[in-house]
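> forwarded from #structure-qc
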């Protein structure tokens, strides 16, 4: 009897911390199902993954999993910082011929591995799906952002046809009327950051819109969200997108499948060196007394913005744990003096590190609130931890995420487009005292819904089961 081909998934993320992190979690979830999984990473980011994490040893427990690498199209000495994101995009776009060669070579079929029967490609690099299509391999788009962000990108044509974009004046509080499901609360300033440009041919605007449209040509779309959180927006999207699988929050889904609990693992997918000394410091702090501050893996701030945040945190009188990446301050002069009141205030109540184990920090009993850039991974991690947020969005999807956090879900406060010490001080005090109970009630309700979604029988749990069965059936289409 002829043997049935075996399902083999190739996963390819955009080379950035948040993208690699969430797609590795998806890879591990698929490994539990017994699928063959190849994770294709760029050589530069794979070296960092091996250097700073236990990913290699962690995945050794899955005999049907392997890492593969590909160039990112940039020279070895390139910094690959967010300041050069245009280079990153241009570089990875140039890799399409190398990707095609990899897909048709025997490298992916060697060592008794079956041929690739399905690709899951980051929607930010949806142009790689053209290669899959050419080779007759079904391709699924994975979007690491929120559904509300994706929908606002998809509605670009609505905005231009209605004359709502480009903006005719500087009134950033003017309501946007032509993004279905968001009328009445979405302002200009809440649209993704690239909508603030004046030129329609801006490369970042074109990338976001084009790749969103390209994603709709996939066999299906995977989103790291859950139905109870973004159901109304998902309902708007479904007539326009291929089948949508909501599997999130992925980090909690993975914990649920691993150990039947939501406690974060000690394992990490960080591309930065983790400083765990902050956990010891947190152990010595009172219950719910610490504000955790982190602006993610790529967001940048000016030195003046850093000092305003620092003054606001110290002046609030609250304890704080602040993650400041070595490359996070754009114009930082290491020789410039830090005001004495900041160093003294931090000595008394603060702790600062270059990077930390965020999932563990958020669930630590000493942490009572999160001052965040509103990246989607951070937002979902805060929801699972049940921690209300103050949002200071910087770029991309963060602006619209923060509006939903504050106005729709009511689990945080929005501080976008403002950065002065008085506002920081007020927002921190509102988060930790004045509005604490009100925010906590909303957050507790949504946090419980999130946990239910990734528990056995929940919507995200069942959607993953359906995705796996659909991937198995895709082998028949090759």
């Amino acid at each position: 009897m002829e043997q049935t081909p075996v399902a083999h998934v190739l996963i390819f993320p955009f080379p950035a911390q948040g993208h690699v992190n969430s797609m590795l979690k998806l890879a591990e979830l698929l490994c539990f199902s017994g699928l063959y999984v190849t994770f294709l990473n760029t050589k530069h980011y794979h070296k960092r993954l091996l250097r700073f994490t236990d990913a290699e040893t962690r995945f050794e427990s899955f005999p049907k999993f392997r890492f593969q690498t590909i160039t990112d199209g940039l020279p070895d000495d390139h910094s690959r910082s967010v300041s050069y994101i245009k280079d990153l995009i241009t570089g990875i776009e140039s890799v399409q011929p190398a990707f095609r060669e990899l897909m048709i070579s025997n490298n992916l079929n060697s060592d008794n591995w079956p041929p690739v029967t399905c690709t899951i490609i980051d929607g930010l690099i949806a142009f790689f799906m053209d290669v899959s299509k050419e080779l007759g391999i079904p391709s699924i788009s994975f979007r690491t952002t929120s559904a509300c962000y994706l929908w606002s990108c998809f509605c670009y044509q609505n905005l231009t046809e209605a004359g709502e974009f480009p903006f005719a004046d500087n009134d950033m509080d003017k309501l946007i009327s032509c993004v279905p499901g968001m009328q009445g609360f979405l302002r200009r300033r809440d649209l993704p950051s690239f909508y603030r440009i004046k030129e329609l041919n801006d490369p970042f605007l074109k990338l976001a819109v084009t790749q969103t449209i390209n994603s709709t040509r996939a066999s299906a779309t995977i989103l790291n969200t859950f139905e109870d959180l973004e159901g109304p927006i998902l309902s708007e999207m479904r007539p326009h997108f291929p089948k949508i699988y909501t599997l999130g929050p992925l980090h909690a889904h993975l914990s649920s499948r691993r150990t039947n609990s939501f406690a974060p693992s000690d394992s990490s997918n960080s591309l930065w060196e983790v400083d765990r000394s902050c956990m010891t410091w947190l152990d010595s702090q009172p219950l719910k007394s610490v504000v955790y501050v982190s602006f993610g893996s790529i967001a940048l701030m000016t030195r003046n913005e850093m000092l305003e945040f620092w003054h606001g945190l110290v002046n609030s009188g609250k304890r704080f744990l602040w993650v400041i990446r070595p490359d996070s301050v754009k114009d930082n002069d290491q020789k410039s003096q830090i005001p004495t009141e900041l160093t003294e205030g931090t000595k008394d109540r603060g702790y600062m590190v270059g990077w930390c184990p965020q999932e563990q920090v958020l669930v630590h009993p000493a942490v009572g609130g999160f001052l965040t850039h509103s990246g989607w991974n951070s937002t979902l991690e805060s929801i699972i931890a049940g921690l209300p947020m103050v949002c200071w969005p910087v770029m991309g999807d963060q602006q619209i995420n923060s509006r939903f956090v504050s106005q729709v879900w009511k689990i945080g406060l929005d501080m976008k487009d403002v950065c002065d010490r008085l506002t920081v001080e007020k927002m921190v005090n509102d988060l930790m005292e004045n509005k604490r109970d009100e925010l906590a009630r909303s957050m507790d309700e949504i946090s419980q819904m999130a946990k239910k979604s990734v528990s056995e029988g929940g919507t995200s749990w069942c959607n993953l089961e359906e995705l796996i069965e659909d991937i198995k059936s895709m082998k028949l289409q090759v």
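QC bot note: The longest helix spans residues 436-453. The mean pLDDT is 91.
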